[in-house]
UniProtKB/TrEMBL annotation:
Entry keywords, A to Z: NAD, Oxidoreductase
PROSITE patterns linked: D_2_HYDROXYACID_DH_3
Stretch forming the signal peptide: none
Name the record gives this protein: D-lactate dehydrogenase
Family as reported in the entry's similarity comment: Belongs to the D-isomer specific 2-hydroxyacid dehydrogenase family.
Entry coiled-coil feature ranges: none
Record has Oxidoreductase as a keyword: yes
Classification via Pfam families: 2-Hacid_dh, 2-Hacid_dh_C
Organism: Sphingobium scionense
Residue stretches making up the D-isomer specific 2-hydroxyacid dehydrogenase NAD-binding domain: 108-296
Length: 337
């Protein structure tokens, strides 16, 4: 098949080329949106990532240009108008799972870097400043950690915190994981969890129920010095409330790999640009905030797995085989990774 691959970075080119099963790959740098949709004209398949915008107008343009398959190289599909895709006869496939270890390990790395001030120490040492004032951390051992969402990624984080570091671990999920229960993880409501933990790590999908699960009310009821880690979805946190909680010293530290308004920022080099998002800029000024640009998935293993599944999805479609990773129009709001 002739495939237009939007939003291509060097690593996409490398891993998708390596996993290619004889298709004609056209790597395009722009993100897919209404302005760039015409670049997809004449391609039977269009391959996209989390911040490409596939609304009804974009999909209609693609369908009119001969596109029949939308291949998402990510898990989430909340950026695709699935009803419009179905009405236009476009098939949508995705990569439902790829190396939860990549995200879980990055989550723990972020927590440890934040907690032990490693990001600040690194900057100091580069300036030949070896003073330790201001770098006092906390042991993970013995602290109470909460994991909201104990699916593929959250369960690995809970296990690591419990067995690897000796934290007391509370969890919250609509379904309980028997293996976590057996190792002594205690399930409680999200409300109880947020009141009882020193650290909370978010691993649930973004749904109407979980949107702003960390809000002013939750922060107000939390223990003083709460440390918040989010590698799941930005809008799980009300960023205004987060900034207020940091300013009042109620929140002890924040590590984020995702941000509510990240679509306008992440995955691009904006080092020569003026950032207009004042809230984001304020967040970056706190000494106890560590932000990365949605890179938790970025390991060789995960990228290889994403590329292999994407190419297998496309080959299955081309050969008329059943599509194990098809996303149909009934799918509700989904995780995004
Ligand atoms: P998963 O589907 O395996 O697990 C999600 C868990 O959340 C499930 O156990 C589900 O029951 C639970 N859940 C659903 N609603 C809930 C609620 N209201 N309260 C508490 N728990 C609830 O998903 P996963 O693969 O573990 O991914 C978790 C998150 O990580 C997703 O949001 C995904 O988008 C994100 N992610 C981020 C990156 C990154 O690079 N930062 C990469 C991959 C995935």
């Amino acid at each position: 098949m002739r495939i237009a691959i939007f939003g291509t970075k060097g690593y996409d080119r490398h891993f998708l080329s390596a996993a290619n099963q004889g298709h004609e790959l056209h790597f395009l740098e722009p993100r897919l949106d209404a302005d760039t949709a015409s670049l997809g004209e004449g391609f039977e398949a269009v391959c996209v990532f989390v911040n490409d915008r596939l609304d009804a107008a974009v999909l209609a343009k693609l369908a009119a240009g001969g596109t029949r398959l939308i291949a998402l190289r990510c898990a989430g599909y909340n950026n695709v108008d699935l009803v419009a895709a179905a009405e236009l006869g476009l098939t949508v496939v995705r990569v439902p799972a790829y190396s939860p270890h990549a995200v879980a390990e990055f989550t723990v790395a972020l927590l440890m870097a934040l907690d032990r001030r490693i990001h600040r120490a690194w900057a100091r040492v580069r300036e030949n400043n070896f003073a330790l004032d201001g770098l006092i951390g906390r042991n993970l051992h013995g602290r109470v950690a909460g994991v909201i969402g104990t699916g593929r990624i959250g369960a690995l984080v809970a296990r690591t915190l419990k067995l690897g570091f000796g934290c007391e671990v509370l969890a919250s999920d609509v379904a309980q994981d028997p293996e976590l229960l057996a190792m002594g993880v205690r399930y409680v409501s999200p409300r109880d969890l947020l009141e009882q933990v020193d650290i909370v790590s978010l691993h649930c999908p973004l749904t109407p129920d979980t949107r702003h699960i960390i809000n002013a009310d939750a922060i107000g009821r939390a223990r003083d010095g709460l440390v918040i880690v989010n590698t799941s979805r930005g809008a799980l946190i009300d960023t205004q409330a987060l900034v207020a909680g940091l300013k009042s010293r109620k929140i002890g530290g924040v590590a984020l790999d995702v941000y509510e308004q990240e679509a306008d920022l992440f995955f691009e080099d904006l080092s020569n640009e003026i950032i207009e998002d004042d809230l984001f800029q304020r967040l970056l000024t706190f000494p106890n905030v560590l932000v990365t640009g949605h890179q938790a998935f970025l390991t060789e293993e995960a990228l290889a797995s994403i590329a292999e599944t994407t190419m297998a999805n496309i080959s299955d479609f081309a050969a008329g085989r059943p599509l194990a990773n098809r996303v149909d129009r009934q799918a509700a709001i989904a995780p995004r990774g």
